[in-house]
Amino acid sequence: MSHSSSRMLDRWMSAGMLAPALLLVGVLVLIPSVLAVVGSFYEFGITSQNWVFVGLGNYARAMADPIFWTALKNNIFLIIGSIITQVGLGTLFAALLDRGVRRGNTFYRTMIFMPVIISSIAVAFVWILIFDPNVGPLNAVIKGVGLTPPRLGWLGDPNISLYMLLVIAAWQNVGFQMVLVLAGLQAIPKELYEAAALDGAKGWRAFVHITLPGIRNVLMVGTLICIIGGLKVFDLVFVTTGGGPANATQVIGSYTYLQAFTLGNMGYADALSVILLVVALGFGWLQLTLSRRG
Amino acid sequence: MNGRTRLVAIGMHLILTVWTIFVVAPIGLMLISAFKSQAEIFTKPLSLPGSLNLSAFQRAWNIGIGSFMLNSLLVTVLSVAVIITTSGLAAYVLARSEAKVMKWLYILIIASFAIPVQSVLVPLYQMVSGGHMLNSQLGIVLPYAAFGIPFTTVLFYAFFLEFPRELEEAARLDGCSRLQIFFRIVVPLSGPVVASAAIFQAVFNWNEFLLALMMLTEKSVRTLPVGIYGLTTQYSSDWPAIMAALTIATLPLLILFILAQRHFVRSLAGLGK
Amino acid sequence: MPSLEIDNVKKSYDNFQALKGVSFRAEPGEFVVMVGPSGCGKSTLLRSIAGLETISSGAIRIDGRDIAHDDPSQRGVAMVFQNYALYPHMTVAQNMGFALKMAGRPKAEIDAAVQRAAQILRITEHLEKKPKALSGGQKQRVAIGRAITRSPDVFLFDEPLSNLDAALRSQMRIELGRLHAELKATMVYVTHDQTEAMTMASRIVVLNAGQIEQTGSPLELYNRPTNRFVAGFLGTPRMNFFAGRVVRQTGHSVSVQLPGVDINLELTLEGEGPGVGGEIVLGARPEALGGETGIEIAGTTAVVENLGREALVYVDAGALRTFDSESQEGYVAVHRSFQVESRFGAPTSIRLDASRLYAFGPDGRTIAFPHSL
């Protein structure tokens, strides 16, 4: 086989190997996101052929929509809350498993990780049952010790429902963060601790000077996963509260769904999507630059 | 061991035990409630069922959990197979080619990794319905694949970059064509990363809710998450049946997880790298 | 056994010329070692012969046939890689027979070839093992066996011993020598280790910055290096270099003064000298400074490396300092053929004998050799 023809063959083969993946991603991810941007400048219904150009109207509408701001605020609340609870507890448990506890290691890890693989729908329903005012065991316990459970229900009271969502999310995801940090901890060479001990750094000081810098990248990834998860949250909210009561727990994901498929405001839903897209790409870019530096 | 370190050790176990109980209790509640009668749920929320009552499972099964499960299995297996194959081929070319255009294609893949499903709900729905693929398994497999490919490609790309170049050169000298190198040398040695990617995507697609909710509106094609969701709007007060359905939906993955927990943990923790 | 001819081979990457026109010829059955510092182009040249790199111009001929644009597997070459490059998912036997299998040879023929190679390398009892179960030395044997099974025209070795420990390395050197004698094959071997080059080569090719500095037998290169690079590259410890100045010239006889040392050395040049007042570099191998003849220069002991029966002494000779040596800090390396009690600062001396020195002109070419060579 002559050289140039084998090169041509190589080129065709490369194209052939790339094509399926690029085609799928291009047609079903990239083109739709462009279409979402285009659609956000129009007003149209779910089946209507009648597209009305409204320019930036949908974005102006979002800026003036108190529910949009509530939803955005709730996303941010869930992001910050889950960073504190999930990364915090995950790191604590990982540290205990890595250096503190010798017996039952695998057992703890398996159990704490277990909820990660359960579908969020199942998680949501189990917690609906737990929180149920009539048949839920939580109220039964609270009443049993002589206290009064919230009158509107755990998920029905706008003042506490978001916190409950945070509890459920922590229940499901702490195990994931724990395993992530644990992998980071185990990657720190034991010699570093020995060297630090010779230099007089033990216990808390070893943690500050050896452990924390060693898992800095992992903590950053964990934080970013919380941020992205908090931006994309949908299932849990949709099933447990449906965004209620009175839109108090609405998030961008559920609000977009509501506008598109319940109210039929497709253009407005597109605008909400694009806002989410911009924020998500921003964080994606941040992740890329941070991981490059690491 | 002196008294103080002993106390510290007990404290550590205590913290982990409390969280473990917190984690296990709801799962236990799901299992227990599935065996209760409807009356028991109301009258004795905190106690064990009086007898091993399987009627809730029967009701759940009659509603169609079996077909939801088959649909989930079909959709998950198909989408994971498509994701692994297409991502593997693409990542290999991207990792091996030195052409500039490949760098841009890789950046494009990374960018699409950051695009959430929520951002393309409306156009995706219109495309799928325009292609008359609403309520078809293929209509959901293809988006699942498309959204799984970027992450998997990035994962494989990193693996292929680390793959010893000398092995491929040795194979070239031994007379392998490019495809032969891929299938006879690279693929047989990619077992761990393929397993990682497959586990991750399988868990994700088995549990996926939003796209399924949007595109699988007919009961006969629903996967477990939407199926169960639809069921609860119909039988909202039949808690034992709902919990039985959840148990059926969750148990296969839970058993698989307990058996192969090491692989699961490694696969999902691999995200951090 | 066929010959291998490299004819004016050039290779450039985007803006870097890795090979600037390299030519040499390996006669049938020769063991050619390409040696040079890292980045000199020796690996690029080897990989170009194998077909893993495409050359920009020139020809690579095996038995007169230009193979420079053939597919790697069609060139009749086999390569042994630095990291062994054994397929981890195949047994030793499958590794060794893979090329023949890809070529579609019958199973019986493959088995016979594998058996024969395994016998030569004494790895028959490992044939059914996976590479993971083997030690470093055994892996290297399998890698060599894989090459033998193909019965190639030319064997290529890419720093094959650099991952082995010192003891195993010297053992494998001997083994490779035996193998070459047994197979009588044409072999090209790349290394940065000049000991390997000196001990195994029937011919050494010294490469530097993409060009050949000199080719020849090991002793030829050691005794009569044509330039300062080759003189400094071969031999451990390195040749000592002293910067001097020509103070008098009559025909081919020059008188050289070393700065700071009040001595004149009379040398006979073979080539053009730099002229009176010109700079000249004198070179002395460590074994040439420990003799009984020549001008004695007093100094003190800086470092002693006892090698057992003999010793290397690094001498602080005051103003007489070597240059062009990163590791010696200007100390003069002297080889003593007896044991030396190591003591820092102890008085000692070296002897500069003009008849045992090399001299290099301003362009680096060798212009004088020791009289005996």
Order of adjacent strands in the largest pleated sheet of chain A: 1-2
| Protein structure class of chain B | mainly alpha
Tell me what the CATH architecture of chain B is: Orthogonal Bundle
**The CATH superfamily title of the domain at 38-119 and 171-293 in chain A:** MetI-like
Q: Give the radius of gyration of chain A.
A: 24 Å
Order of helices and strands of chain A: HEEHHHHHHHHHHHH
CATH superfamily of chain B: MetI-like
* SSE pattern of chain B: HHHHHHHHHHHHH
Tell me about the biggest sheet of chain B? none
Text of the CATH class of the domain at 38-119 and 171-293 in chain A: Mainly Alpha
Overall shape of chain A: globular
Structure annotation, total helices of chain A: 13
| Oligomer class | heterotrimer
- SS-based class of chain A: mainly alpha
Report on this structure:
The complex is a heterotrimer of chains A (294), B (273) and C (373). Chain A is globular and about 75 Å long. The mean pLDDT of chain A is 87. Chain A has 294 residues and is mainly α. Chain A has helices at 3-39, 57-63, 66-100, 105-113, 120-131, 137-144, 161-186, 190-198, 203-214, 216-232, 235-240, 252-262, 266-293; strands at residues 42-43, 52-53. The mean pLDDT of chain B is 87. By secondary structure, chain B is mainly alpha-helical. The relative contact order of chain B is 0.14. Chain C is α+β, with helices and mostly antiparallel strands and 373 residues long. In chain C, the strands form 4 sheets. Chain C has a 6-stranded mixed β-sheet with strand order 6-7-8-3-9-10, sandwiched between helices. Chain C has a 6-stranded antiparallel β-sheet with strand order 13-12-11-14-19-20. Chain C folds into 2 domains: 4-232, P-loop containing nucleotide triphosphate hydrolases (Rossmann fold); 238-368, no CATH class. In chain C, a hairpin with a 2-residue loop joins strand 1 (4-13) and strand 2. Chains A and B meet through helix 1, helix 3, helix 4, helix 5 and helix 6 of A and helix 1, helix 3, helix 4, helix 5 and helix 6 of B.
